[in-house]
Amino acid sequence: MAHDPTESGTAQEHTSGTTEARKKKEFFLPILKGLANTIAHIFRREPNTIFYPEERRAPYPGYRGEHRLKRDSLGREKCVACFLCSTACPSHCIEIVAEEAPWDDREKRPRIFNIDMLRCIYCGMCEEACPCDAIELTPIYNIPVLSREDAIYTKEKLLSL
Ligand code: SF4
Ligand code: SF4
């Protein structure tokens, strides 16, 4: 059968017309949805803002905020200075210096336990790595600091959170 170039051209034009229409739809539909969302927010009665710091939003469950060192039932730090958290930390922001523990149930405790919060990426690897459940990331998200030194959380600060 002989090939009709006119027919083929029409089919091509039809296909390209359909593609153009689809492209336009894909382009304009999200814009229209976005505009509708914006307009709906303009006429919403509830405010989107809160009076921070008097009012504070509760973070979502699982939020990883400031770090805390935990104490046991006797008030002692749970940390046994095993260095697993500092080894697991991808930012190398945990500094631990161990000393002999004064108690019979463990060999060591941290004399120095510092976290440089300016380097921390809040990944939670330290919490995951700890075999003693001694460190955790709390939902606290708003501890302001005024200097780089203040951003080094010491053992005392971590135990007080
Ligand atoms: S949260 Fe991540 S980066 Fe921060 S101290 Fe723990 S392991 Fe290091
Ligand atoms: S916080 Fe946990 S992982 Fe880190 S040194 Fe102490 S016991 Fe080991």
List keywords for this structure.
Alpha-Beta Plaits, 34% helix, two-stranded antiparallel sheet, binds iron/sulfur cluster, 2 domains, 3-stranded antiparallel β-sheet, 161 residues, alpha+beta
Q: What is the CATH C level class of the largest domain, in words?
A: Alpha Beta
- Mean pLDDT across residues: 90
Order of strands in the sheet with the most strands?
Answer: 2-3-5
The DSSP helix count reads: 4
* H/E series: HEHEEHEEH
- The value of Rg in angstroms is 29 Å
Name the hetero compounds present.
iron/sulfur cluster
The tally of beta strands, per DSSP, is 5
Which spans of ≥5 residues are poorly predicted at pLDDT below 50? none
Give the number of domains: 2
Helix content: 25-40%
The secondary structure category is: alpha+beta
Strands, helices and their partners?
Elements: H1 5-42, E1 67-69, H2 84-88, E2 94-100, E3 108-116, H3 125-129, E4 135-137, E5 152-153, H4 155-160
Antiparallel strand pairs: 1-4, 2-3, 3-5
Summary of the model, kept short:
By secondary structure, the chain is α+β, with helices and mostly antiparallel strands. The chain folds into two domains: 1-48; 67-160, Alpha-Beta Plaits.
